[in-house]
Automatic annotation (TrEMBL):
GO terms for molecular function: acyltransferase activity, transferring groups other than amino-acyl groups. Keywords: Acyltransferase, Membrane, Transferase, Transmembrane, Transmembrane helix. PANTHER family: MEMBRANE-BOUND ACYLTRANSFERASE YKRP-RELATED. InterPro entries: Acyl_transf_3_dom (IPR002656), Nod_factor_acetyltransferase (IPR052734). It comes from the Bacteria. Signal peptide: none annotated. This is Acyltransferase. The chain crosses the membrane at residues 7-25, 37-56, 68-89, 117-138, 145-162, 168-188, 200-218, 245-266, 308-328. Residues 7-325 form the Acyltransferase domain.
Length: 341
């Protein structure tokens, strides 16, 4: 990314993470719940492809040091801390807690409670690696597009693959190929997306389609379920089953374009006083992603059942803890640097 951040991308990240938190806070799985799951995870994979570049001179070690290891370290640090918090808050046995560290290594759908959203980091890291391999060694753009479609078609053509008699693959490995489709889309069409977000001839029809799809879902004429973690995908229109791949290819992308455009126009017309707080939330999406489920569960245990209240508290508390983590991390790095010097 250039030194000057693109404001609307940070705002879109903020919208996406608030949608994720709200989806987890909801107890009633109605139209809004389904609608949020159509796009709130794909949007992060699409944006993950925006600034990807082919690996130069096969410098994969540099790629791992810069892109993979930092996320991997944060995954185990935050995961370990939350496992211990869960042990004391939920009153879990030491045997359960000890085995949860094994589950943290295995990842994917074996993670639940406070760590139920950690599958996203597993899948994101795998999709990042797979996408980088494709754009590094496959130079032809049309071939890259074909690979994106093949990865989506194959990965959605079955329900489960068993690994050593276990129902779930480590790190939700197969889900990463669905995520790779969205990441490759973000990589291949970032410049087009930058044009589309400003083009009302594109965005108005996309927004109208979004409203129509939401209303059809509400009226039970349209039925689309898209849950990446569990790989539960179903699609029908007027109760007639239709291609799940077609729905995945178009609906999340169209809605994400609407979110991108709304974020762009928000940044264009609103004062910096309104933009900056949203942008700051967008810059802390990883910390909020890690922490919000624990906050929601604790608030829920305290007896507060309002999805809106839980969302506000989860975003705010997770944001503050994320900032604090970044501050401590910075201080530790500076101390280590001084010690080495």
């Amino acid at each position: 990314m250039s030194k000057k951040r693109i404001e609307w991308i940070d705002v879109a990240k903020a919208v996406g993470i608030i949608a994720v938190v709200f989806g987890h806070a909801m107890t009633r799985h109605g139209t809004m719940f389904h609608f949020l799951y159509w796009w709130h995870m794909p949007i992060f994979f699409i944006m993950g492809g925006f600034f990807l570049k082919p690996i130069v001179n096969n410098d994969w070690l540099g790629f791992f040091k810069k892109r993979i290891f930092p996320l991997l370290i944060s995954y185990f640090i935050c995961g370990g801390l939350l496992i211990m918090v869960s042990h004391f808050v939920r009153g879990e046995s030491w045997a359960y807690t000890a085995f949860y560290f094994v589950r943290l290594v295995y990842g994917g759908r074996t993670l639940n409670h406070y760590l139920s959203v950690f599958w996203y980091i597993n899948v994101y890291l795998l999709a990042l690696l797979f996408t980088s391999i494709v754009i590094t060694y496959v130079k032809n753009r049309e071939t890259q597009i074909i690979i994106a479609f093949i990865s989506l078609i194959v990965s959605t053509s079955y329900k489960h693959i068993y690994f050593l008699s276990h129902k779930f693959l480590p790190w939700d490995f197969d889900v990463a190929f669905i995520a790779m489709f969205f990441m490759l889309f973000g990589y291949l069409y970032f410049h087009k997306i930058q044009e589309f977000v400003k083009d009302l001839w594109v965005i108005i029809p996309a927004a109208l389609f979004t409203v129509w799809a939401f209303w059809m879902q509400h009226m039970d004429r349209f039925n689309f379920g898209f849950y990446l973690k569990s790989k539960i995908i179903h699609a029908s229109y007027h109760h007639i089953p239709i291609s799940r791949v077609a729905y995945i290819m178009f609906i999340p992308i169209i809605i994400c374009l609407v979110v991108f455009s709304a974020s762009y126009y928000f940044c264009k017309f609103m004062p910096q006083l309104a933009i900056k707080p949203i942008q700051l939330i967008g810059q802390q999406t990883l910390g909020i992603m890690y922490l919000h489920k624990a906050v929601i569960d604790i608030v829920d245990e305290a007896g507060y059942k309002s999805a809106i209240l839980e969302t506000v508290l989860a975003v705010a508390i997770s944001f503050i803890l994320s900032i604090l983590y970044a501050f401590i991390k910075s201080k530790v790095k500076k101390s280590l640097h001084k010690a080495v010097s």
